[in-house]
Amino acid sequence: MAAQVYSKKDKKFPVLPNLADYEKLHAEFNWSEASKELDWFEDGKLNAAYNAIDRHAKGDRKDKLALIWEGAKGEKKQYTFLDLFKLSNKFANLIKNKGAQKGDRIFIFLPRIPYLYTAFLAILKNGSVAGLLFSAFQEQALLDRLSDSGAKILFTNSELAKRVEGIRSKLPELKEILIVDTPEFENELAAQPDSFETVKTDPSDFAFMLYTSGTTGKPKGVVHHHYAIVAQHATAKYVLDIHDTDIYWCTADPGWVTGIAYTILGSWSCGVTSFIDEGRFDPSRWFQKLQDYKINIWYTAPTAIRMIMAEGEDLPKKYDLSHLRHILSVGEPLNPEAIHWSIKTMGMPFHDTWWQTETGCISIANYPTMDIKIGSMGKPFLGMEAAIVDDAGKPVANDTEGNIALRPGWPSMMKTIWQRQEKYDSYFINNWYLSGDRGYRDSDGYFWFIGRSDDVIKTSGERVGPFEVESALVEHPAVVEAGVIGKPDQARGEVIKAFVVLEKEYLDKVKTTEEAQKLKDELSQYVKKHLAGHAYPREVEFIDKLPKTRSGKIMRRILKAKEMGQPVGDTSTLEEY
Ligand code: PRX
């Protein structure tokens, strides 16, 4: 079936888009030219935080608002680039005095408060490596990340610090926990000078790391270097279409890569004023913010969009959205209905963008001036080569399903997987980086998403590894073993479903439906409490036996096929089931 196209031909943009002619720029673009938009120190040194904030604070944008913040209780604060420069310098002095050195891992476990952002900037200015922890994480998720990275200092608040107390003794390398909402911290911070000599890092020095999930094993630490800002800056300019006069809102939390690349690094590097909302998602409240803060560019995610759509077409119409110019989405497939809906209710289409924690920047995108083939992720970013390849890394013909791959070498490609070189190496084949996603390219060069090639789950846009959830479940005394899958869900993309084999004595206890439901709820809550609030199974099913290969690997694809009522496919490697 031919794709529906949203033509941009006669569309007027209130401000000229940065990119007028994709095909031309794509042919001409090169990274060495693009990197000149950044401020480099002598001898080819580059610091990403310097480029995000310091250079503006030292130049014409010093009194320009960098951050407009609204707290969860409606508190309001504003910071200019100069304010953020000074405050992050104080943070940098503070951690330096605590012994933080170049290359040390310093983690942040905070809600979206201004100190999260200044701590992040300070860590980079000091040449240390910033690690981010999503505020929904519980003990097990925190322990996995803090111990694997050997984190030395942790920024958190009094509320979240409680989750670290029980694991502290298992973290011998964690020397200091800084609780930012205490008078002691405020006093210590106030005593720091507001100037700091930003470390002149090499472009290839590590800047930040994020743990992310695959099919097997615990989450892995994806490490990015300072040079990544070259790609984050360029994508913020050409895909997000950031202009100096814009007010921009990216709804992502910096516990995930989007909140780092496009709230802190690429977007501030372009000198934009960012709105940051600490509060939770709520459709009407979000529209109120779009109106009140006169947002021009809005970068959000499909689950939020679907939940907004569920409120009905009248919702956007109640608000003055006349400032809105460009709206985008990332993280999961953007359904065509969402685009039709936004055209109808807001007069403009959502622009889908595709990328990953590992790619560090938007890699395939619908550009402001490019026609949208509704349902497609768009075309590769300027200077990037994307292809569909087979399992041997050989490009396949147009319109043929295969692995979505990128040619290595763009500036924000992950630098390494923390202390797991073999894992890093496993991403590459035949000089292609394999994303783990399946898709196809059509004859016009547009890329279309099909699904994951592995068992990684995307629930409400957040990436969850089944192994982590299975590991959390088997910690519960009732569970012998568990197999976890992502089950398609209209609102959340996928929900987590766990198939659980019970211990004999528990089996005897769940004779009635009510008893069974009680235990199912208990297991869900157990994962929520021990692993993470967003990673708990919404559905639990008791099962006698899990399908496994003869070597003992859980066959999640069989669980999924059965759940979906689909044929189970090749079962020749399966142990008797
Ligand atoms: O499966 C793809 C999906 O999200 C994965 C990456 O997740 P994460 O590392 O958490 O980064 C998300 C934000 C950058 C991808 O492998 N994904 C991301 N964008 C899209 C998508 N799936 C379909 N369409 C997209 N636009």
TrEMBL record:
Q: What are the AMP-binding enzyme C-terminal domain coordinates in residue numbering?
A: 468-553
Q: Which PROSITE patterns match?
A: AMP_BINDING
Q: Which keywords are on file for this protein?
A: Acetylation, ATP-binding, Coiled coil, Ligase, Membrane, Nucleotide-binding, Transmembrane, Transmembrane helix
Keyword Transmembrane helix in annotation: yes
* Top-level taxon of origin: Bacteria
Q: What class of enzyme is it?
A: ligase
Entry EC no(s): 6.2.1.1
**GO BP terms, alphabetized:** acetyl-CoA biosynthetic process
Drop me one GO molecular function for this one.
Answer: ATP binding
Name the residues that span the membrane.
115-137
Gene Ontology CC terms:
cytosol
According to the entry, every stretch annotated as the AMP-dependent synthetase/ligase domain falls at: 55-418
Coiled-coil regions listed: 502-529
One Pfam short name:
AMP-binding_C
Q: Which family does it belong to?
A: Belongs to the ATP-dependent AMP-binding enzyme family.
Q: What is this protein called?
A: acetate--CoA ligase
